[in-house]
Write a structure and sequence with these properties.
It is a single chain. With about 170 residues, the protein is of the alpha/beta class. The chain has one domain: P-loop containing nucleotide triphosphate hydrolases (Rossmann fold), CATH 3.40.50.300. The protein has a 5-stranded parallel beta sheet, sandwiched between helices. It is globular. The two termini are about 15 Å apart. The C terminus is likely disordered.
């Protein structure tokens, strides 16, 4: 199974993703690590990414998803997946892909980004992320005001429900 934690920068994808992967014994992947250098340079300069900028990144992530599905290994992937088209591209109707939307309000997330010093995504780009965000329908949505442990528990419970369990390898 591929659990994709999505939302704007600062919504807690990495924090929640690492905790969830640890609890489940799954691999954790930070989607930002797969951006081409040109994208990172743009973000450092405060320039929002275009759909064209994001395509090589999405291609790399989709390739990773396919590799994990082929190996029958489960992974938690932190990935903004802001637009419906991005999510559709990443999912490609694979039943093994499960999205979790980490939802929070602009002011809370802006405050988190301002307090963060070890990331190239700064608070100045947050408005462009909210503008690009197409809130998903039909996916698990979690309010990020909750305690991270509670968030992880609720996601874990949903992933382990019978409809989401991976079939056993034969």
């Amino acid at each position: 199974m591929i659990a994709i934690l999505m939302g704007v920068s600062g919504s807690g994808k990495t924090t929640i993703g690492k905790l969830l992967a640890q609890r489940l014994g799954w691999t954790f992947l930070e989607g930002d690590a797969f951006h081409p250098r040109a994208n990172i340079t743009k973000m450092i300069k405060g320039i929002p990414l275009s759909d064209e900028d994001r395509q090589p990144w999405l291609n790399a992530l989709r390739e990773l998803i396919e590799q994990f599905i082929h190996k029958k290994e489960s992974v938690v992937l932190a990935c903004s997946a802001l637009k419906a088209a991005y999510r559709e591209f990443l999912e490609q109707k694979d039943r093994e892909v499960f999205f979790v939307y980490l939802k929070g309000d602009y002011e809370l997330i802006r405050k988190r980004l301002e307090e963060r010093s070890n990331h190239y995504m700064k608070a100045g780009l947050l408005s462009s992320q909210f503008e690009a965000l197409e809130e998903p329908e039909g996916v698990m949505t979690v309010d990020i005001l909750r305690d991270p442990g509670e968030i992880v528990t609720s996601i874990q419970q949903e992933l382990l429900r019978p409809k989401h369990r991976q079939p056993k390898a034969e």
